[in-house]
Amino acid sequence: MSRVLVGVSGGIAAYKACELIRGLRTREHEVRVATTQNALRFVSSLTLQALSGHAVRSELFSLSQESEISHIELADWADVAIVAPATAGFLARIAHGMADDLLATICLALRAPLIVAPAMNVNMYRHPATQANLDVLAKRGVRIVGPDRGELACGWEGEGRLVAVEELLGAVEQALDPGTYQGEVVLVTAGPTAEAVDPVRVLTNRSSGKMGFALAEQAARRGAEVILVAGPVGLPTPYGVQRMNVESAAQMQQAVMDALDRATIVIMAAAVADYRVAERAREKIKRETQDVLTLELLRNPDILAELVPRKGGRTVVGFAAETERVLENARAKLERKGCDLIVANDVARQDTGFDVDRNAVWILGPGGNDVVEVPAAAKQEVAARILDRIRQVRDA
Ligand code: C5P
Fold first, then answer.
1. Are 227 and 150 contacting, i.e. CB atoms less than 8 angstroms apart?
2. Fewest Cβ atoms nearer than 10 Å: which of 57, 138, 214, 378?
3. Is-contact 84 23, C-beta < 8 A?
4. Is 154 among the residues known to form the active site?
5. Do the beta carbons of residue 378 and residue 27 sit within 8 Å?
6. Which atom of ligand 1 is nearest to the CA of 274?
7. Cα of 226 to ligand 1 centre, how many Å?
8. What is the CA(249)–ligand 1 centre distance, in A?
């Protein structure tokens, strides 16, 4: 858990700061909010307070606000600060080291990493003054995220949109990164696979992909190059991650084998379908033609088991989703598949496991006797603990 200072300046995208704060809290970061006066014309102090769990600071010379936490204390408190949205005017002020309002003053006093996420009209963004200010900030080590291209609230089309919240979250976590995965290439599989029955129907499972995506994101933020082989899920691609979308187990196997040479660590978090339909119907199967439909299923290749003999110096991590005798089954799986670590989770529990944002796992080490328990926490936090363990095993 880290301390994140969220700065909000006065643009139409200010409402997205609410989602950013929520996302940071979900990932169990502590959040404090400081805004410009104009930001509060777009989003209320009450909303920001309710989401962050703390009073919001917006005035430099407010005795009541200063008595709760002074602007210097706030700057010292932060492990990282992010200003989203950062307007053209705000960027100009901090580029020139001005201390004419609370947020700019905090930025001047800040020693932690600062991230800014510009959002403005495309012409304001392209203006040489704004570009020069961004240059100055970048040279000074400020991290600049975005903007994205697209339709803008002002009616223009082009660069100027605030980047997606996921990208902001990724940038925050990357800034907090101790860099322990620098030089590693991490291959992660995530999500379910979908095995076609006919052109419209598939056989699939309840995996949401959230655990695998969290692992990919956390590995990227620790400095790894990450290749994410994703089954059909609607999740956004984490910041800095290279994604390959696949549908079937066969496609997943191909994608994994293609990327294997480059990988130093392989994490198989996908819930691969065990069977595929022997013969996929060319046309949509009509219900009028048959009362009982029998599908012949063939066993899919076990990607993990086939990969282990080729693993060389790589660290290979499997997952075991179990509904009973979790540790016992996971231990047997570790043995049978020959991977370095197995992450076991009890998917019979309602509050953790499949398709929810939290998880609780056991990480079984080499030999199966060495078990690290990770109690229920946000999947991002669980992913961080799994990566800590992988690092230990690789460094041992
Ligand atoms: O045997 P079981 O399906 O429980 O094993 C789970 C582990 O094996 C997971 O890491 C999963 O990604 C991997 N697996 C695989 N190919 C399959 C089935 C599972 O790589 N066909």
1. no
2. 138
3. no
4. yes
5. yes
6. 21
7. 20
8. 10
Give the C-alpha separation, 138 to 169, whole Å: 19
Q: What is the pLDDT, as a whole number, of residue 178?
A: 67
Ligand 1 binding pocket mutation candidate from 207, 319, 342 (most atoms within 8 A of CB): 319
Which one of the listed residues 18, 107, 154, 339 is annotated catalytic? 154
Mean pLDDT of 195-215: 95
* Cα–Cα distance, 396 to 383 (Å, whole number): 20
Q: What is the pLDDT of residues 117-155, one digit of tens each?
A: 999 999 999 999 999 999 899 888 888 999 998 888 888
CATH number of 3-176: 3.40.50.1950
Q: What's 185-395's CATH class?
A: alpha beta
**Fold matches, 3-176 and 185-395:** yes
pTM, whole model, 2 decimals?
A: 0.70
Tell me how far apart the alpha carbons of residues 264 and 225 are, in angstroms, rounded to a whole number: 10
The percent of residues in the chain predicted with pLDDT above 90, rounded, is: 76
Q: Which of 14, 24, 12, 79 is nearest to 52 (CA)?
A: 24
67 versus 204: which is more confidently predicted?
A: 204
- Specify the ligand 1 atom closest to the Cα of 270: 12
Distance 91 CA to ligand 1 centre (A): 49
The domain limits of the chain are: 3-176, 185-395
Tens of pLDDT along 296-310?
Answer: 999 999 999 999 999
**If DSSP codes are grouped into helix, strand and coil, which group holds residue 175?**
helix
Mean pLDDT, residues 321-343: 93
Residues touching ligand 1 (Cβ under 6 Å) are 189, 249, 268, 270, 272, 274, 300, 302-304, 318-320, 333
Mutation probe of ligand 1 site: the residue of 304, 308, 363 with most atoms within 8 A of C-beta:
304
pLDDT at residue 133 in the model:
96
CA of 272 to the centre of ligand 1 (A): 6
| Angle 279-285-286 from CA coordinates, rounded to 5° | 155
User: 25: which residues sit within 8 A by CB, 6+ positions away?
Assistant: 31, 51, 52, 53
Does the pLDDT at position 73 exceed 90? yes
How confident is the model over 240-299, as pLDDT tens digits?
Answer: 899 999 999 999 999 999 999 999 999 999 999 999 999 999 999 988 878 899 999 999
